[in-house]
Amino acid sequence: MAPTSSAKVTAKATTKVIKPLNPSEFDTGKINFSNVITNTEIGNKYCKITYGNDNNSENKLLVAARGCIIKTFKKLETTDKEGKIIKGKKDKYQIFMNLKDNNFINMFNNLDEYLINKGVENSQKWFDEKMELEECTQMFNNNKSTLSNHEKYGYAIGCVLATNFMCKSNTDEVPDVSNLELALAKNTVVDVCFNIHKLKLGVGKYSLGFEISQINIKSLGSSEQYESNALKPEDYKTGNLTLSTIQQHEKGGKFCELLYQEKKLRIKLANIVGRIFKFEKDDTVSYSMSIRLTDETLRNMIEGIDKEILTMLMANSKDYYGSKKTEKLLKAILKPLLSYNKADQEKIKKGEKPTYEPSIWVKIWHNEEKGFDGKIMNAGTNKPITNTEDVLNKDLNISSIEIYSRHIWFGPKGTSINLTLNKCGVSYDVPVYDMDDIDDNNEKGEEIDDTEEAEIAESDAIEDSDED
Fold first, then answer.
1. What is the mean pLDDT of the chain?
2. What is the 3-state secondary structure (H, E, C) of the chain?
3. Dihedral over Cα of 121, 122, 127, 129: its sign
4. From CA 86, how far away is CA 82, in angstroms rounded?
5. Which residues contact 181 (CB under 8 A, 6 or more apart)?
6. Do residues 452 and 247 make contact, with C-beta atoms less than 8 angstroms apart?
């Protein structure tokens, strides 16, 4: 792959051709690490990575992966420490791909093992204290492989594009690469040049830093639909939920993952009614959907999930909170998924029957440029709903919706269980009901805390690449 120079080429000038490493020729013995570097502006630490016997700082570790299949590609918002969008910054993109190159897969898996052993060897320099193999294994990527591996869809990788990224097309099917979001569409087959350039040293964890220098488009793939492993309420069974170990986010805050049968909890619902609300606080705008738990099976599942989470957190409260918690104290800290509005909360305290069924709240990704980014579709036309005002503050007939638990967040305001929208289909032919009023915040009677949305990247795999 040959990156194209951004400068004008004269008749005498030559383009420097850089040949990425074939992953089958990768040799861990040629990896070099710099001294630990501290970024005083944001407080993170890292070591630069170079490749070669001469330890030249210009020797980049560039590796080619062949035949990757794009699954998602999107523009990232650049935010500051408080999660506020920074205007005027150069566009930044992230990509998630299925991997078909076994040599590349084997190389990354071998690299993971090598970095764990190197963590033991260099623990005093990297972590300021001596670490054993078991500790470094837990610290590396928070005990996860750099590559994700789905039992049905195989290996995949998430990554960001370098600031000097280049895209080239080797097929007439994609004649124009000026618009990356069109050129790098879902299921497009590409060859990718990865730049593995640093080892990120966090608090109680470390991971590989890499970015994509170039993509060569090979062909357009099939439009085969992804089959989700989302759980239907009638299929929910107790005893399958687990919590990951608590993780320290590098920008502050702690969280853990909520898993069902060792995978992130995903829920699929059909033929429900929901409402989308817009919340504004300072310069932040957010959107959430309230789903009324009128269906008994759905309500039983949500109550079961809440009960299992409470039980697991209480049994392991010392690990998650640093001290033993009683059930009464934990209930005061934990905000369950199932919630009532303020008026009904007061009725329940008095021993009275609530007026309405409880709800669950689902956060919806949104920005000014892309709106809901195609996550909310018109079920009749199968086209994205672009006018957000069309779906606000009214009952919506939702033919199908998929949501997932991004994390359980441990913050100063308590412990909250995040549910986030993946996709849903909405019918415009909806009845209008006067359900109940909401206050200036939300139906739970609490402030919307958007900081956690800015802290955790949308995809787990992206967290392992070079976002910072």
1. 82
2. CCCCCCCCCCCCCCCCCCCCECHHHCCHHHEEECCCEEECCCCEEEEEEEECCCCCCCCCEEEEEEEEEEEEEEEECCECCCCCECCCCCCEEEEEEECCCHHHHHHHHHHHHHHHHHHHHCHHHHHCCCCCHHHHHHHECCCCCCCEEECCCEEEEEEEEEEEEEEEECCCCCCCCCCHHHHCCCCEEEEEEEEEEEEEECCCCEEEEEEEEEEEEEEECCCCCCCCCCECHHHCCCCCEEECCCEECCCCCEEECEEECCEECEEEEEEEEEEEEEEEECCEEEEEEEEECCCHHHHHHHHHHHHHHHHHHHHCHHHHHCCCCCHHHHHHHEECCCECCHHHHHHHHCCCCCCCCCEEEEEECCECCCECCCCEEECCCCEECCCHHHHECCCEEEEEEEEEEEEEEEECCEEEEEEEEEEEEEECCCCCCCCCCCCCCCCCCCCCCCHHHHHCCCCHHHHCCCCC
3. positive
4. 11
5. 73, 74, 75
6. no
| Rg, C-alpha atoms of the chain | 24
Residues 6+ apart with CB under 8 A from 139: 119, 127, 131, 204, 205, 206
> Which of 463, 410, 407, 466 lies closest to 141, judged by CA?
463
Quick one: average pLDDT of 161-165?
Answer: 92
Given the structure tokens 């500790």, which residue do they identify? 135
pTM for the model: 0.51
Strand partners, 85: 79
Given this model, what pLDDT does residue 6 score?
Answer: 37
What share of the chain has pLDDT > 70, as a percent? 81
Question: Given the DSSP bridges, would you call strands 61-76 and 334-335 parallel, antiparallel or unpaired?
Answer: unpaired
CATH 2.40.50 in the chain: give the residue spans.
Answer: 23-224
Distance CA 183, CA 215 (A): 11
In the block, tokens 């305290």 appear at 349
Task: Decide which of 2.40.50, 3.40.50, 2.60.40, 1.20.120 is the CATH code for 23-224.
Answer: 2.40.50
The answer to whether 41 touches 163, Cβ cutoff 8 Å, is: no
Amino acid sitting at position 322: G
The residue ranking higher by pLDDT, 90 or 433, is 90
pLDDT band of 82, cuts 50, 70, 90: low
**Spatial CB neighbours of 54, under 8 Å, sequence gap ≥ 6:** none
φ, ψ for residue 195, nearest 5 deg: -110, 105
CA–CA gap between residue 299 and residue 338 (Å, rounded): 8
Question: Does residue 78 have a pLDDT over 50?
Answer: yes
